[in-house]
Amino acid sequence: MPERDGYIAGVPCWIDTSQPDPRAAADFYSSLFGWDVEDVMPPDAPGEYYMARIRGLDVGAISSIPEGAPQIATWNTYIWVDSADEAAAKVREAGGNVLTEPFDVMDAGRMAGFTDPEGAVFFVWQAGQHKGSQVVNEHGSNNFNNLNTRDLESAKKFYGAVFGWETLDLDGGAVMWALPGYGDHLEEGSPGLLKGMEEMGAPRGFADVVAGINRISDDKPDTPAHWGLTFAVDDSDAIADKATELGGTVLMPPFDAPWVRMAVIADPQGATFVASKFVPENRDLATQANTAGAA
After folding, report:
1. How many domains does the chain have?
2. Residue 108 lies in domain
3. What is the pTM of this model?
4. Could you write out the DSSP letters of every residue in 197-244?
5. Does the residue 62 lie in any domain?
6. Is the CA virtual torsion 176, 180, 182, 183 positive or negative?
7. Rounded to 5 degrees, what are φ and ψ at 226?
8. How sure is the predictor about 290, in pLDDT bands with cuts at 50, 70 and 90?
């Protein structure tokens, strides 16, 4: 189900990156992923907002950083909600903070910005004319959103209260965010998807997964809690090489992990992301790792 026309509440639905030099970032990502980019802001607007497209369909965007905000390049996660105002109330009740009160983005939709109790920034999107990313899970498009946290129990309480998320524990110690019923929603749009996942050997309950969780290592005391994202790619090794040629930095060279081969990359202005190739042959790596660890 790589092409989408909207989402259901509680599902990450859009990504954009805030950049000190959005034009330079647009050049980098269009060269890296083959995006077509267009500045959709009016000529007299104070900032830039480059819409990124594949086959003419929206995959994400590149924006200026608002005046007065820290000039730090980041990738941003947006989660679909039925009401941005209700989401703001839930965030407050659950112990989070409202960074940006809900506001209308012309006729595109309504959004708000928050931090969870640990300080990780995320946004919500109440759709109007804009229905979020139209292409996902294919080369150059969003594949996964991940919360990086030190306090998993606090995160469970917060995101459960705000979005109704539960956690799914996988072999190897991985933990995922799951939205009950999401797999049934996907099945409606792609009949046979659930059976296909079962035949492929996907873990029970994986169809309901909407995002991932990474635990921040104790040996990284300066790394704050944050949301990150993963791009699907056809060849993670080639993307790592290309990113380097374009002025980016490979923070973690390509390596094999359960189901995937991935690399961690920083763009020239410092925004980080994961490039991940789906490798079904790697499905048993977690079991192998557990066996090796117990030996």
Report:
1. 1
2. 12-294
3. 0.93
4. HHHHTPPTTGGGEEEEEEEPPTT-TTPPPEEEEEEE-S-HHHHHHHHH
5. yes
6. positive
7. -165, 160
8. very low
